[in-house]
Design brief:
single chain, about 80 residues, SH3 type barrels, mainly beta
Length: about 80
């Protein structure tokens, strides 16, 4: 498979310590550095920022996101640094 990814969690493992984009069910988007995750896709982001309309809305810092609130996670290569 692409980039040595054979299982869904392989992508998250490769993204640890890197910036990711997280889309939440509430239509909120967060960008931050992936610190940790578990099998429920609960994630911890450092230096998290809320993005709205491709612009920074607010800085959040270190945050925990519950897996059942997440729609998708995208690696840094797809994150636009605006």
């Amino acid at each position: 498979m692409a980039n040595g990814i054979e299982r869904p969690l392989d992508l998250l493992n490769q993204s640890k310590g890197k910036e990711i984009l997280v889309q939440l069910k509430s239509d909120r988007q967060l960008v931050g550095t992936l610190v940790a995750f578990d099998i429920h896709i609960n994630v911890v982001l450092d230096n998290a920022k809320e993005i709205q309309n491709n612009e920074l809305k607010r800085n959040i810092g270190l945050t925990f996101l519950r897996g059942d609130t997440i729609v998708f996670i995208s690696p840094a290569s797809a994150v636009s640094n605006k």
